[in-house]
């Protein structure tokens, strides 16, 4: 069985939701506090010296990181979570998958830990990243179909990113006011019965799982 090392509500939530949709069994290990010295960081660094989440320990003992790579691995086993090959939707899926991790993700990396990158301009760096992130979401909004999912009628792993990211900054009200398609796609994903437990455990929707 796959073991997912992560923290509720963090980027590991994306991998958890993807695995759940694909009906791939996994075990979750909570390493909250991994980003500070201590036992959780030690446990994670034994598998991933860079101490990133999600970190997946595969059934064969190998280690996988990076949500886009994990998404591609999942598609090998459950190809229905992406549009069919050789279609415009498939090419858009591939483009947006890489775009999200190459462009939006870094704004969290820099804004969440500004002290790693600057000794005197932490506040300015955070504000700049947050402002830039909004421009990225506005561009993404222009690429979405939202009928009812990001690329049309078919649910894809892009919708998982949107659903989880809507719970991050700039938060609910901003997305509702400025990116209505993005907001509506997340709402649609939140209604899927098979995702209720994993979304609650990651504080993405209200309530607690049993």
Write a brief structural summary.
This protein has 210 residues and is α+β, with helices and mostly antiparallel strands. It is 52% helix and 8% strand.
Topology:
Layout: E1 2-6, H1 12-21, E2 26-30, H2 39-45, E3 55-57, E4 63-65, H3 67-77, H4 88-112, H5 122-143, H6 157-165, H7 171-178, H8 180-190, H9 196-201
Parallel strand pairs: 1-2
Antiparallel strand pairs: 1-3, 3-4
Task: Describe this structure as you would to a colleague.
By secondary structure, this protein is of the alpha+beta class. It has two domains: 2-80, Glutaredoxin; 83-192, Glutathione S-transferase Yfyf (Class Pi), Chain A, domain 2, CATH 1.20.1050. It has nine helices and four strands. Strands 2-1-3-4 form a four-stranded mixed sheet, covered by helices on one side. The longest helix has 25 residues, at 88-112. The mean pLDDT is 95.
CATH class of the largest domain: Mainly Alpha
Shape: globular
By helix and strand content, what is the structural category?
alpha+beta
What count of structural domains? 2
- Helical content stands at 40-55%
Cα(first) to Cα(last) distance is 22 Å
């Amino acid at each position: 069985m796959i073991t997912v090392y992560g923290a509720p509500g963090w980027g590991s939530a994306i991998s958890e939701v993807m695995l759940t949709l694909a009906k791939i069994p996994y075990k979750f290990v909570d390493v909250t506090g991994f980003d500070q010295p201590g036992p959780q960081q030690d446990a994670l660094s034994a598998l991933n010296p860079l101490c990133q989440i999600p970190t997946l320990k595969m059934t064969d003992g190998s280690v996988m990181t990076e949500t886009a790579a994990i998404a591609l691995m999942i598609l090998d086993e459950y190809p229905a979570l992406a549009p069919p090959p050789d279609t415009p939707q498939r090419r858009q899926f591939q483009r947006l998958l890489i775009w999200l991790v190459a462009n939006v993700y870094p704004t969290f990396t820099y804004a969440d830990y500004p002290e790693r990158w600057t000794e005197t301009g932490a506040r300015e760096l955070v504000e700049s990243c947050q402002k830039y992130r909004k421009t990225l979401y506005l561009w993404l909004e222009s690429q979405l179909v939202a009928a009812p999912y990001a690329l049309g009628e078919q649910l894809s792993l892009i919708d998982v990113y949107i659903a989880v990211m809507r719970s991050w900054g700039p938060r609910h009200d901003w997305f509702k006011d400025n990116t209505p398609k993005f907001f509506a796609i997340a709402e649609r994903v939140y209604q899927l019965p098979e995702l209720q437990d994993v979304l609650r455990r990651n504080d993405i929707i209200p309530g607690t799982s049993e």
